[in-house]
Specification:
Layout: H1 9-12, H2 18-26, E1 29-33, H3 37-49, E2 53-58, H4 75-79, H5 84-95, E3 100-105, H6 113-117, E4 122-125, H7 130-143, E5 147-153, E6 156-162, H8 170-173, H9 186-189, H10 193-211, E7 221-226, E8 231-236, H11 240-243, E9 263-268, E10 273-278, H12 286-293, E11 298-301, E12 306-310, E13 313-317, E14 323-326, H13 331-341
Parallel strand pairs: 1-2, 1-4, 2-3, 4-5
Antiparallel strand pairs: 5-6, 6-7, 7-8, 9-10, 10-14, 11-12, 12-13, 13-14
Helix pairs in contact: 3-10
Length: about 350
């Protein structure tokens, strides 16, 4: 065996990869968007597997409560207040110094996503909100880049592989996102590390199939797991693309990429606040959202607004999803807070 391949010998012995597959991995380029719970497991697995070029993109910093499940970080990263992407790159370069690893500390949005993904063979979803996932879907479908969707919360998670124009895309299966505040987040429902590792491992497995061109082995289904309940469910989606007139992969409307969907942010001059407004109004159920938030901070609401105070920030939320977040001037931080607590 080639000396340069010896570190991957146990992977090469696996018939699904072999020496030819390993060489393909070493010549491949993957982008991981989001370096939190899923993203750290994904990035670690891809680096160890010998993916030759790896780009890690994240907008956030390492916090102590990340350490329970985000496997590339430690207490020193918290003390140094390191960006997640940078901390991940440092760790991975110690794990595999023979591959190229790039970190990018930025908010992924319609103005930069196409340049971020340029040349990629695979995109891995480690994000925490539907808006970014729909944006990834638009960009990947437009440029015919395979990507792997993944999500988890509490003890539950799911994943699906997307090959543009060959398999259903995200909007074939889920044309619109759930209403703001309707879905739980890790900050409102919690999350246990085992489900993170399982879903990320499923994502990486499908990613390795794509990078080694094992197309026949690729799953044509959504995989759903609840590790606490011990359930494993597969939903066949092989015919979903034919069954719907998808706005993205059938009609060629890249609404999120063109900034026609999603949200936009405005810094409110002199108020130390950022306003977040959905381009397409949503409908928030204050009562159910308040129940999710009440253990995390101070919550009050009436028919017109919901107010939530946490960690020095005050969020004022309106029924159409518009929010004013006080105590912050940086739109990227405001967007992160909105995704963290409202969940879209």
């Amino acid at each position: 065996m080639d000396k340069n391949l010896e570190r991957y010998s146990r992977q090469i012995f696996f018939p699904g990869i072999g020496e030819e597959g390993q060489r393909k991995l070493l010549n491949s380029y993957a982008v991981v968007i989001g370096c939190g719970a899923l993203g750290t497991v994904i990035a670690s697995s891809l680096a160890r597997a010998g993916v030759g070029r790896l780009k890690i993109v994240d907008r956030d910093f390492v916090e102590e409560n990340n350490l329970q499940r985000q496997i590339l970080f430690d207490e020193e990263d918290v003390r140094e207040n390191l960006p997640k992407a940078v901390a991940a790159q440092r760790k991975l370069e110690k794990i595999n110094s023979h591959i190229q690893i790039e970190s990018l500390v930025t908010d992924v949005n319609p103005t930069n996503i196409e340049s971020i993904l340029e040349g990629a063979d695979l995109v891995m979803d480690g994000t925490d909100n539907f808006e970014t996932r729909y944006l990834i879907n638009d960009a990947c479908v437009k440029h015919k880049i395979p990507w792997i969707y993944g999500a988890c919360v509490s003890s539950y998670g799911l994943s699906m592989a997307i090959i543009p124009y060959e398999t259903p895309c995200l909007r074939c299966v889920l044309e619109t996102a759930p209403p703001a505040g309707a879905t739980p987040t890790c900050d409102t429902a919690g999350v246990i590390a085992p489900i993170v590792n399982i879903i990320a491992s499923i994502q990486v497995t499908e990613g390795l199939k794509i990078l080694t061109q094992n197309w026949k082995a690729l799953r044509k289904e959504i995989v759903m797991v609840d590790i606490w309940e011990g359930s494993f469910t597969k939903v066949d989606i092989s015919q979903s693309r034919e069954a719907v007139n998808c706005p993205t992969c059938k009609q060629g409307n890249f609404q999120f990429l063109e900034g026609k969907e999603g949200s936009y942010m405005t810094v409110l001059c002199g108020r130390d606040a950022v306003q977040i407004t959905h381009k397409t109004p949503v409908q928030i159920q204050f009562e159910s959202l308040a129940q999710k938030l009440q253990s995390l901070g101070e919550v009050s609401y009436n028919a017109y607004i919901l107010k939530f105070k946490v960690n020095g920030f005050e969020m004022t939320l309106f029924p159409d999803g518009r929010s004013i977040i006080k105590g912050v001037k940086d739109p990227v931080i405001a967007k992160g807070l909105y995704a963290k607590y409202i969940g879209i």
